[in-house]
Design goal:
The protein is an alpha+beta fold and 104 residues long. The protein has helices at residues 14-25, 29-40, 46-52, 57-69, 88-102, and strands at residues 4-7, 10-13, 44-45, 73-78, 81-86.
Length: 104
């Protein structure tokens, strides 16, 4: 069952809103790099990412925050580091939503 949201005279589905949120989170090369890295391994520590990415820790932190808020990754504190992994359920949902869009 599709759920709709009226925007002016346009009808926006919940799936479209979800896909847009995922797309926004993936809308930066650093975030795509992180997602690709995490898709190839089970998890990664934030400190390891700062060693391979030539950006400030605070900038990386903002990118990780955006991915986490979109639900594409999840973080687990293992003091003094944070371990990041893909949120496999949401990652699969994003894949299915984009697949549906590209098949139109």
């Amino acid at each position: 069952m599709l759920t709709y949201l009226m925007v002016g005279k346009q009808t926006i589905t919940i799936d479209q809103k979800k896909a847009a949120r995922y797309a926004k989170a993936m809308g930066h090369p650093v975030r795509l790099y992180v997602l690709e890295l995490l898709s190839r391994q089970s998890c990664c520590y934030s400190g390891d990412l700062t060693e391979v990415l030539p950006i400030a820790k605070s900038t990386l932190s903002q990118h990780l925050k955006e991915l986490k808020e979109a639900g594409l990754i999840q973080g687990e504190i293992e003091a003094p580091k944070i371990k990041y992994c893909l949120n496999r359920n949401n990652w699969e949902e994003a894949r299915q939503l984009f697949r549906k869009i590209f098949e139109l």
